[in-house]
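Quick review question:
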């Protein structure tokens, strides 16, 4: 069974990544790829243990056995996610962007914990990468794939190697396009790291926004700029 957060699975990979010759930006993205793939595995096992409380499986140190039908379903989700959808922007009347009371943020409902599929729903721009960008990341792909394989957290199973690599390129692009910088709260402004928050990323980069962010103290919430029908919420 994995430790609670599974860090022992990628501890060795993180050490190797620290000495890998690449830019700080590139290494931080690769680190998030490892974490995304690890979280998928940890959540996967956690759900299984919660739904099938077997004393034998709880005592075992091996990962759960995944049924072939489930492997196919997971792989199909990954492959389907590589197809970027083109959505027509919705025109929003800028006069609707009233400033609500920031203190009301405490009454906003919290989002559910993110899942791997939430991450896959983020926009990837891999299909529009320039040759230079693709070539730069290609240099690191062999190293990344070895880290994932050695850690047994490759996010695809039973599919050809090129499709796996394309999946990984899309994961890299999702992180690059949607991650948030984590900044020092005091003193000289400096980025300490990066993180991916799928629920926040859904609203972060639109040129035609249908919602706005509200910030209060160290909290942030999102408010729609028009009424949302029950059918749309469901």
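Suggested answer, residue by residue:
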């Amino acid at each position: 069974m994995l430790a609670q957060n599974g860090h022992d699975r990628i501890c060795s990979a993180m050490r190797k990544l620290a000495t890998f010759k690449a830019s700080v930006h590139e290494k931080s993205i690769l680190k998030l790829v490892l974490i995304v793939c690890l979280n998928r595995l940890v959540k996967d096992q956690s759900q299984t243990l919660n739904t099938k409380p077997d004393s034998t499986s709880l005592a075992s140190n091996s990962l759960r056995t995944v049924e072939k039908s489930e492997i196919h379903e997971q792989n199909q989700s990954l492959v389907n996610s590589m197809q970027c959808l083109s959505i027509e922007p919705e025109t929003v009347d800028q006069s609707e962007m009233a400033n609500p009371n920031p203190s009301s943020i405490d009454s906003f409902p919290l989002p559910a914990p993110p899942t791997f599929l939430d991450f896959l729903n983020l926009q990837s721009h891999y299909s529009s990468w320039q040759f230079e960008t693709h070539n730069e990341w290609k240099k690191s792909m062999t190293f990344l794939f070895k880290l994932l394989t050695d850690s047994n957290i490759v996010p695809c199973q039973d599919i050809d190697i090129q499709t796996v690599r394309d999946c990984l390129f899309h994961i890299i692009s999702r992180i690059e396009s949607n991650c948030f910088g984590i900044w020092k709260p005091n003193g000289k402004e400096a980025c300490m790291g990066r993180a991916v928050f799928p629920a926040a990323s859904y609203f972060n980069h639109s040129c035609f926004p249908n919602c706005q962010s509200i910030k209060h103290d160290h909290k942030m919430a999102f408010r729609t700029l028009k009424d949302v029908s029950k059918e749309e919420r469901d």
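Why it works: The longest helix spans residues 24-51. Residues 7-57+66-84+92-233 form one domain.
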